[in-house]
Amino acid sequence: QVQLVESGGGLVQPGGSLRLSCAASGTTSSVYAMNWFRQAPGLQRELVASITNGGSTIYADSVKGRFTISKDNAKNTVYLQMTSLKPEDTAVYYCNHGPHYWGQGTQVTVSS
Fold first, then answer.
1. How far is residue 16's CA from residue 14's CA, in Å, rounded to a whole number?
2. Strand partners, 1
3. Radius of gyration of the chain (CA)
4. CB 3 within 8 A of CB 25
5. I need a labelling partner for 18 at 20 to 30 A (CA). Which of 35, 38, 42, 110 fits?
C-alpha cells in the first residue's frame, strides 16, 4: 500500500515560481514511474511530468523548459519545480504512482 501526499500549492503571480512536493509512504514499485498530473476545471487530467526509477524524465510540451521533476530517494519524495508560471498552469496538481495510487491533489492558481 502506498500513500501519496502533495504539498506546496498556492496562489502565485504570472512569471512566479512554486515547488510542489509529493511524499510517498509505503513501498513504491520500481516498475512504475512517479508522475505529476494536473486537471483544470472542465478539462481532462493531463500528464505534466514523469520520472522513472532510474531518473529518466519526460515532460508535457506545454511545460518543457519551465518545469523540472526530481526526486529524493532518501526522503521518498518527488518534487515539481515550476517556474515562469502562466495563468494556463492553473489546475489541481496530482501525484501518481502506477495505476492505483493518487494523492489528494494540491491547488495551483496563477493570477495577478
1. 5
2. none
3. 13
4. yes
5. 42
